[in-house]
């Protein structure tokens, strides 16, 4: 099943690979990853859509929040991720979810 996560991050070297490794260690495949530019607070937004076991979603969210450069991690939904017509670029509410 596909899942969407939204993160507020300090864009520092290595943050992308550290986040990706959390998913990889739990058997998830990342289908989509996008990092937007800085907002007014100086943070970047990272959107990750991944496929994996629903029972591990809470664990992934907690592990992402433990990363030093992640300010906030939020699981958005699995229902939005399975919508084949989903265009994250056209859903500004998703980018503001965190």
UniProtKB/TrEMBL annotation:
Query: SUPFAM superfamilies of this UniProt entry?
Result: ACT-like
Listed EC numbers: 2.2.1.6
Q: Where is the chain membrane-spanning?
A: none
Q: What sequence ranges are listed for the domain ACT?
A: 4-78
Say which domain of life the source belongs to: Bacteria
Q: Does the keyword Transferase apply?
A: yes
Which pathway does it serve?
A: Amino-acid biosynthesis; L-valine biosynthesis; L-valine from pyruvate: step 1/4; Amino-acid biosynthesis; L-isoleucine biosynthesis; L-isoleucine from 2-oxobutanoate: step 1/4
Q: Name one GO molecular function term.
A: acetolactate synthase activity
- InterPro entries under this entry? Acetalactate_synth_ssu, ACT-like_dom_sf, ACT_dom
Reaction(s) catalysed by this chain's protein: 2 pyruvate + H(+) = (2S)-2-acetolactate + CO2
Keywords from UniProt, A to Z, are: Amino-acid biosynthesis, Branched-chain amino acid biosynthesis, Transferase
* Gene Ontology BP annotations: isoleucine biosynthetic process; L-valine biosynthetic process
> Among its keywords, does the record have Coiled coil?
no
NCBIfam families, sorted: acolac_sm
Q: Which family does it belong to?
A: Belongs to the acetolactate synthase small subunit family.
Q: What does this protein do?
A: Catalyzes the conversion of 2 pyruvate molecules into acetolactate in the first common step of the biosynthetic pathway of the branched-amino acids such as leucine, isoleucine, and valine.
Assembly and interactions?
Dimer of large and small chains.
Q: What is this protein called?
A: Acetolactate synthase small subunit
């Amino acid at each position: 099943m596909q899942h969407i996560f939204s993160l507020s991050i300090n864009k520092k070297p290595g943050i992308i690979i550290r986040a990706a490794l959390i998913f990889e260690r739990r058997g998830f495949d990342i289908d989509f990853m996008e990092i937007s530019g800085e907002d007014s607070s100086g943070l970047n937004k990272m959107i990750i859509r991944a496929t994996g076991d629903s029972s591990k979603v809470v664990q992934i969210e907690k592990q992402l929040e433990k990363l030093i450069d992640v300010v906030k991690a939020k699981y958005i939904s699995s229902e939005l991720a399975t919508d084949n017509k989903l265009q994250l670029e056209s859903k500004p509410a998703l980018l503001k979810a965190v």
